[in-house]
Amino acid sequence: MTFPASPMRMPLARAAVHAVLLLYTALCLGPVLLVVMNSFKTRASIFSAPLSLPGPGSFDLVGYMTVIGQGVFLNYFVNSLIVTVGSIAAVLLFGAMAAFALSEYRFRGNRALGLFLALGIMVPIRLGTVAILDMMVASRLVNTHLALILIYTAQGLPIAVFILSEFMAGVSKDLKDAGRIDGLSEYTIFARLVLPLVRPAIATVAVFTMIPIWNDLWFPLIVAPGEATKTVTLGAQVFIGQFVTNWNAVLAALSLAILPVLLLYLMFSRQLIRGITAGAVK
Fold first, then answer.
1. Which of 165, 188, 209, 259 shows the smallest number of beta carbons within 10 Å?
2. Class (C level, CATH) for 70-281
Protein backbone atom coordinates (compact mmCIF):
# COMPACT_ATOMS: atom_id res chain seq x y z
CA MET A 1 0.00 0.00 0.00
CA THR A 2 1.42 3.36 -1.04
CA PHE A 3 0.74 6.72 0.57
CA PRO A 4 0.68 10.05 -1.28
CA ALA A 5 3.60 12.37 -0.73
CA SER A 6 3.15 14.88 2.05
CA PRO A 7 2.30 18.42 0.81
CA MET A 8 5.12 19.76 2.97
CA ARG A 9 7.73 17.49 1.37
CA MET A 10 7.11 18.65 -2.20
CA PRO A 11 8.24 22.30 -1.66
CA LEU A 12 11.24 21.04 0.32
CA ALA A 13 12.21 18.61 -2.44
CA ARG A 14 11.79 21.33 -5.06
CA ALA A 15 13.90 23.73 -2.99
CA ALA A 16 16.62 21.09 -2.61
CA VAL A 17 16.69 20.47 -6.37
CA HIS A 18 16.94 24.21 -7.06
CA ALA A 19 19.71 24.56 -4.47
CA VAL A 20 21.74 21.81 -6.16
CA LEU A 21 21.19 23.37 -9.59
CA LEU A 22 22.21 26.81 -8.31
CA LEU A 23 25.35 25.35 -6.78
CA TYR A 24 26.22 23.61 -10.04
CA THR A 25 25.59 26.85 -11.96
CA ALA A 26 27.88 28.75 -9.61
CA LEU A 27 30.61 26.14 -10.05
CA CYS A 28 30.32 26.41 -13.85
CA LEU A 29 30.03 30.19 -14.15
CA GLY A 30 32.38 31.10 -11.30
CA PRO A 31 35.65 30.52 -13.19
CA VAL A 32 34.28 32.34 -16.26
CA LEU A 33 33.25 35.39 -14.22
CA LEU A 34 36.60 35.32 -12.45
CA VAL A 35 38.48 35.41 -15.75
CA VAL A 36 36.36 38.25 -17.17
CA MET A 37 36.57 40.34 -13.98
CA ASN A 38 40.34 40.04 -13.68
CA SER A 39 40.86 40.83 -17.35
CA PHE A 40 39.86 44.43 -16.51
CA LYS A 41 42.32 44.79 -13.62
CA THR A 42 45.93 45.77 -13.15
CA ARG A 43 48.47 43.02 -12.62
CA ALA A 44 48.85 43.91 -8.93
CA SER A 45 45.07 43.79 -8.36
CA ILE A 46 44.81 40.37 -10.02
CA PHE A 47 47.07 38.87 -7.35
CA SER A 48 46.07 41.03 -4.37
CA ALA A 49 42.26 40.89 -4.77
CA PRO A 50 41.27 38.33 -7.43
CA LEU A 51 37.68 37.99 -6.16
CA SER A 52 36.86 41.71 -6.10
CA LEU A 53 35.20 43.66 -8.90
CA PRO A 54 37.30 46.16 -10.90
CA GLY A 55 37.28 49.53 -9.14
CA PRO A 56 38.70 53.01 -9.70
CA GLY A 57 42.07 51.94 -8.37
CA SER A 58 42.25 48.56 -10.09
CA PHE A 59 40.49 49.05 -13.45
CA ASP A 60 42.87 48.76 -16.38
CA LEU A 61 42.52 47.85 -20.07
CA VAL A 62 46.18 47.08 -20.62
CA GLY A 63 45.42 43.41 -21.30
CA TYR A 64 42.96 44.18 -24.10
CA MET A 65 45.27 46.84 -25.57
CA THR A 66 48.08 44.28 -25.61
CA VAL A 67 45.94 41.64 -27.31
CA ILE A 68 44.42 44.01 -29.86
CA GLY A 69 47.71 45.78 -30.45
CA GLN A 70 49.29 42.48 -31.37
CA GLY A 71 47.83 42.15 -34.85
CA VAL A 72 48.45 38.41 -35.09
CA PHE A 73 45.80 37.68 -32.47
CA LEU A 74 43.13 38.79 -34.95
CA ASN A 75 44.51 36.19 -37.34
CA TYR A 76 44.21 33.56 -34.61
CA PHE A 77 40.58 34.56 -34.14
CA VAL A 78 39.91 34.26 -37.88
CA ASN A 79 41.59 30.85 -37.96
CA SER A 80 39.33 29.63 -35.16
CA LEU A 81 36.27 30.93 -37.00
CA ILE A 82 37.28 29.21 -40.24
CA VAL A 83 37.93 25.89 -38.54
CA THR A 84 34.83 26.03 -36.33
CA VAL A 85 32.37 27.16 -39.00
CA GLY A 86 33.76 24.69 -41.54
CA SER A 87 33.61 21.82 -39.06
CA ILE A 88 30.06 22.61 -37.92
CA ALA A 89 28.87 22.89 -41.53
CA ALA A 90 30.41 19.52 -42.40
CA VAL A 91 29.08 17.83 -39.26
CA LEU A 92 25.55 19.11 -39.82
CA LEU A 93 25.54 18.27 -43.53
CA PHE A 94 26.97 14.76 -43.38
CA GLY A 95 25.42 14.00 -40.00
CA ALA A 96 21.94 14.95 -41.18
CA MET A 97 22.31 12.93 -44.38
CA ALA A 98 23.54 9.84 -42.50
CA ALA A 99 20.84 10.22 -39.85
CA PHE A 100 18.13 10.45 -42.52
CA ALA A 101 19.41 7.31 -44.24
CA LEU A 102 19.61 5.32 -41.00
CA SER A 103 16.20 6.41 -39.73
CA GLU A 104 14.29 6.26 -43.01
CA TYR A 105 15.61 3.23 -44.88
CA ARG A 106 15.88 -0.36 -43.75
CA PHE A 107 18.81 -2.27 -45.24
CA ARG A 108 21.15 -5.06 -44.22
CA GLY A 109 23.58 -3.77 -41.61
CA ASN A 110 21.44 -0.78 -40.67
CA ARG A 111 21.54 -1.44 -36.94
CA ALA A 112 25.19 -2.51 -37.02
CA LEU A 113 26.16 0.70 -38.81
CA GLY A 114 24.23 2.78 -36.29
CA LEU A 115 25.94 0.96 -33.43
CA PHE A 116 29.33 1.47 -35.05
CA LEU A 117 28.72 5.23 -35.28
CA ALA A 118 27.50 5.29 -31.68
CA LEU A 119 30.79 3.75 -30.56
CA GLY A 120 32.46 6.96 -31.69
CA ILE A 121 30.75 8.75 -28.79
CA MET A 122 32.39 6.44 -26.26
CA VAL A 123 35.88 6.25 -27.79
CA PRO A 124 37.85 9.54 -27.46
CA ILE A 125 39.36 10.63 -30.75
CA ARG A 126 42.56 11.65 -28.96
CA LEU A 127 43.44 7.96 -28.59
CA GLY A 128 44.21 7.97 -32.30
CA THR A 129 46.43 11.06 -32.22
CA VAL A 130 49.55 9.26 -33.48
CA ALA A 131 47.69 7.61 -36.38
CA ILE A 132 45.93 10.88 -37.23
CA LEU A 133 49.23 12.77 -37.27
CA ASP A 134 50.77 10.10 -39.53
CA MET A 135 47.84 10.44 -41.97
CA MET A 136 48.09 14.23 -41.99
CA VAL A 137 51.82 14.10 -42.63
CA ALA A 138 51.34 11.55 -45.44
CA SER A 139 48.58 13.70 -46.95
CA ARG A 140 50.65 16.89 -46.56
CA LEU A 141 47.86 18.55 -44.59
CA VAL A 142 49.91 19.56 -41.55
CA ASN A 143 49.53 23.27 -40.72
CA THR A 144 46.35 23.63 -42.78
CA HIS A 145 42.80 24.50 -41.82
CA LEU A 146 41.56 21.43 -43.70
CA ALA A 147 43.42 19.10 -41.35
CA LEU A 148 41.60 20.48 -38.31
CA ILE A 149 38.24 20.54 -40.14
CA LEU A 150 38.58 16.86 -41.08
CA ILE A 151 39.51 15.86 -37.53
CA TYR A 152 36.69 17.83 -35.91
CA THR A 153 34.20 16.54 -38.47
CA ALA A 154 35.11 12.97 -37.58
CA GLN A 155 34.88 13.90 -33.89
CA GLY A 156 31.42 15.47 -34.16
CA LEU A 157 29.69 13.06 -36.54
CA PRO A 158 28.85 10.27 -34.03
CA ILE A 159 26.91 12.50 -31.64
CA ALA A 160 25.29 14.35 -34.58
CA VAL A 161 24.05 11.12 -36.18
CA PHE A 162 22.86 9.78 -32.83
CA ILE A 163 20.82 12.89 -31.96
CA LEU A 164 19.47 13.65 -35.44
CA SER A 165 18.47 10.07 -36.23
CA GLU A 166 16.31 9.93 -33.09
CA PHE A 167 14.52 13.13 -34.07
CA MET A 168 14.14 12.18 -37.74
CA ALA A 169 12.64 8.84 -36.75
CA GLY A 170 9.90 10.78 -35.00
CA VAL A 171 8.90 12.75 -38.10
CA SER A 172 5.52 11.64 -39.39
CA LYS A 173 5.88 8.88 -41.98
CA ASP A 174 2.54 9.93 -43.49
CA LEU A 175 3.98 13.36 -44.25
CA LYS A 176 6.95 11.85 -46.09
CA ASP A 177 4.76 9.38 -47.96
CA ALA A 178 2.45 12.22 -49.00
CA GLY A 179 5.46 14.02 -50.43
CA ARG A 180 6.48 10.93 -52.38
CA ILE A 181 2.94 10.58 -53.78
CA ASP A 182 3.14 14.22 -54.91
CA GLY A 183 6.31 13.40 -56.83
CA LEU A 184 8.90 14.90 -54.49
CA SER A 185 12.38 13.46 -54.70
CA GLU A 186 14.10 11.97 -51.65
CA TYR A 187 16.41 14.96 -51.52
CA THR A 188 13.46 17.37 -51.51
CA ILE A 189 11.75 15.39 -48.75
CA PHE A 190 14.97 15.49 -46.75
CA ALA A 191 15.71 19.19 -47.30
CA ARG A 192 12.22 20.73 -47.29
CA LEU A 193 10.13 18.44 -45.11
CA VAL A 194 12.40 16.75 -42.58
CA LEU A 195 15.10 19.33 -41.83
CA PRO A 196 12.71 22.18 -40.90
CA LEU A 197 11.00 19.86 -38.41
CA VAL A 198 14.23 18.95 -36.63
CA ARG A 199 15.64 22.47 -36.23
CA PRO A 200 15.85 22.16 -32.41
CA ALA A 201 18.01 19.06 -32.83
CA ILE A 202 20.20 20.84 -35.40
CA ALA A 203 20.72 23.76 -33.00
CA THR A 204 21.58 21.33 -30.22
CA VAL A 205 24.15 19.55 -32.39
CA ALA A 206 25.64 22.88 -33.51
CA VAL A 207 26.19 24.07 -29.93
CA PHE A 208 27.50 20.71 -28.71
CA THR A 209 29.86 20.61 -31.69
CA MET A 210 31.15 24.18 -31.48
CA ILE A 211 32.15 24.27 -27.80
CA PRO A 212 34.78 21.47 -27.86
CA ILE A 213 36.10 22.64 -31.23
CA TRP A 214 36.50 26.28 -30.20
CA ASN A 215 38.09 25.39 -26.86
CA ASP A 216 40.35 22.61 -28.16
CA LEU A 217 44.08 22.99 -27.62
CA TRP A 218 45.24 19.43 -28.33
CA PHE A 219 44.89 19.08 -32.10
CA PRO A 220 45.87 22.68 -33.02
CA LEU A 221 49.05 22.17 -30.99
CA ILE A 222 49.86 18.87 -32.71
CA VAL A 223 48.50 19.21 -36.25
CA ALA A 224 48.48 22.97 -36.91
CA PRO A 225 50.98 24.77 -34.66
CA GLY A 226 52.19 27.08 -37.45
CA GLU A 227 51.74 30.81 -37.16
CA ALA A 228 49.41 30.93 -40.19
CA THR A 229 47.00 28.32 -38.75
CA LYS A 230 47.25 28.97 -35.01
CA THR A 231 43.86 29.17 -33.24
CA VAL A 232 42.74 31.43 -30.38
CA THR A 233 43.33 28.89 -27.62
CA LEU A 234 46.79 28.13 -28.96
CA GLY A 235 47.46 31.82 -29.61
CA ALA A 236 46.81 32.64 -25.95
CA GLN A 237 49.94 30.62 -25.17
CA VAL A 238 51.96 33.44 -26.75
CA PHE A 239 51.50 35.47 -23.58
CA ILE A 240 52.58 32.60 -21.33
CA GLY A 241 56.35 32.54 -20.93
CA GLN A 242 58.74 30.24 -19.12
CA PHE A 243 59.68 32.85 -16.55
CA VAL A 244 57.28 35.80 -17.01
CA THR A 245 53.57 35.52 -17.90
CA ASN A 246 51.50 38.50 -19.03
CA TRP A 247 48.37 37.59 -17.06
CA ASN A 248 46.51 40.71 -18.19
CA ALA A 249 46.86 39.67 -21.82
CA VAL A 250 46.13 36.00 -21.10
CA LEU A 251 42.89 36.81 -19.27
CA ALA A 252 41.87 39.34 -21.94
CA ALA A 253 42.51 36.78 -24.70
CA LEU A 254 40.46 34.15 -22.87
CA SER A 255 37.63 36.65 -22.30
CA LEU A 256 37.54 37.46 -26.02
CA ALA A 257 37.56 33.74 -26.82
CA ILE A 258 34.43 33.26 -24.69
CA LEU A 259 32.38 35.73 -26.78
CA PRO A 260 31.58 33.51 -29.82
CA VAL A 261 30.36 30.62 -27.65
CA LEU A 262 28.24 33.02 -25.59
CA LEU A 263 26.74 34.63 -28.70
CA LEU A 264 25.95 31.24 -30.23
CA TYR A 265 24.17 30.15 -27.06
CA LEU A 266 22.15 33.38 -26.90
CA MET A 267 21.14 33.01 -30.55
CA PHE A 268 20.07 29.37 -30.29
CA SER A 269 19.16 29.10 -26.60
CA ARG A 270 15.45 28.59 -27.29
CA GLN A 271 16.10 25.94 -29.95
CA LEU A 272 18.73 24.32 -27.73
CA ILE A 273 16.35 24.01 -24.77
CA ARG A 274 13.62 22.64 -27.02
CA GLY A 275 16.00 20.09 -28.45
CA ILE A 276 17.26 18.95 -25.06
CA THR A 277 13.77 18.67 -23.55
CA ALA A 278 12.43 16.84 -26.61
CA GLY A 279 15.37 14.48 -26.50
CA ALA A 280 14.74 13.82 -22.82
CA VAL A 281 11.13 12.89 -23.60
CA LYS A 282 12.32 10.53 -26.34
1. 259
2. mainly alpha
